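User: I've been going back and forth on whether these two constructs are worth ordering. Before I decide, could you fold them both?

Assistant: Sure. I'll take them in the order you sent them. The first construct and its structure tokens:
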Amino acid sequence: MTDSIIPVTPKQRHIILDTLRGFALFGICLANFSEFSLYSFLDTDTQQAMPTAAVDTVVKYLQYIFVDGKFYTIFSLLFGIGFSIILSNSKQNGRNGIKVFYRRMSILFIIGLFHLLFLWAGDILILYAFVGFFLPSFRNISDKKLIAWAVIMLLIPVAIDAGVEIFRWNLAAPAISATQYFHGRFGINDTNFPVWLAESQTYPDVLKFNLAGSFIRMQEFMEGNRAFKVLGLFLLGLYIGRKGIYAHLQENTSLLKKTIRYGFIIGFPATLLYAWSAINGRPFGLAAHSAIYAVSVVPFSFFYISAICLWYIKNKERKVFRVFAAPGRMALTNYLMQSLFGMIIFYGIGFQLGARTGLVYVELIAATVFAIQIGYSYLWLHFNRFGPFEWGWRMLTYGKWLRLVK
């Protein structure tokens, strides 16, 4: 590799971006562990038979209101900001950063494929890498067009869901057929698979589930129109990165206050409606539910981001921000480690807590796992410059040896 573009050094990093990334990672842990625990896959009667059923119902509502969709939205916005930083640094160095970015996405895709097949079928990295390949196509358009394309991408899922309702489209049919085939081969069905996975005590059983589950994941991406949503968020992040708002928070205090106000006024009532719709089986229809989701998730995510940024400006010591920044700097490592924790805690090859643990305890376990991640991330970065997977990802991306130990 002949590109001599230099990666961002730890001293050049913006603490606020790492803090937001760590905050998003915490929310993703809360969201994903309800699936790792297999609680999300249990039928209603099984959930209601648990001793914690009454509390679990409240927790489920709170999860839809404050967690669902918000944190992957923040992560996606940060991804777009990261792309803008790569473009900015390459321009300053007089280099073309697009080749580096494509290499970065290619390696991320391979990491995501490894994660999908060997750790957890709920991987998101493959989707990020796939959508990331389209991001450079928007790098030279004007700010107005960038915002317009972002809005279009976020509205396309609503239009597609309307088509599903009206014309009975089934875009995920190939993935559904593949899922049914592999489930039949492995003796898995919708009724027994949560318990089957929680009790299977061999790693090959996990591999079988991940192989079949990978098609379920593709089905979820297609049915949820996730690629369009993610690209729209990437473009919003690219716009924020262009404006350098993250690097000049003090000068953008007024903007942050407005975003907090309108993000809450629009996002909070909409997310209450979204939670009610999700819990009650989307009574307004699929397209309406999709529209409510868009109106709730994006504004409320900006409310989160702006509130943290404003707090960051006012807090001079910033100790709490450094606590979240540590796991944020090791986001890839910690994302993969969350899957390992989930497998060990809930699957049959580990402590077998899956399909038998109430949601309230699942979320407490998730919070504990993230607390552990804060501890070992802080300790690791005390002695090293990068997280272990970040180190390998950077070296493969830039084609050069990077010193790990400080």
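The second construct, handled the same way:
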Amino acid sequence: MEFTQNFIDGLLKEAEGNPRLRTNVDLRDSDSDGSQRMLNALLPGTKVDIHRHPASSESVICICGRMDEVFYDDSGSETGRIRLSPAEGRYGCQVPAGVWHTVEVFEPSVIIEAKDGRYGEDRSERL
């Protein structure tokens, strides 16, 4: 799989047609791969629940766009933000295991997400 501009444009177009304003592509190449590796295309207005992954950190790399990774404490109060914007030289971040987080998307964005454990099987929790 090659991540060309046409491929990225197609993902963002697909996200436009999704009521959730996002879409993803699984990057794992076998059912035996127990990780989560995906491209995620996100549009402004998408809502990602505040969540955490108790057993794994999560790497987030921004290919295009502009968005914030937003962090929270156990009561749901915001504790910090990291801007992701390749145009500004801000390419990604590491979300520590167990930290509540979500994203706020300011312009159409595509990220690579990677962590241990498949979504739904990794003990992830929502706030």
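Notes on the second construct follow. The chain has one helix and eight strands. The first helix runs from residue 5 to 16.
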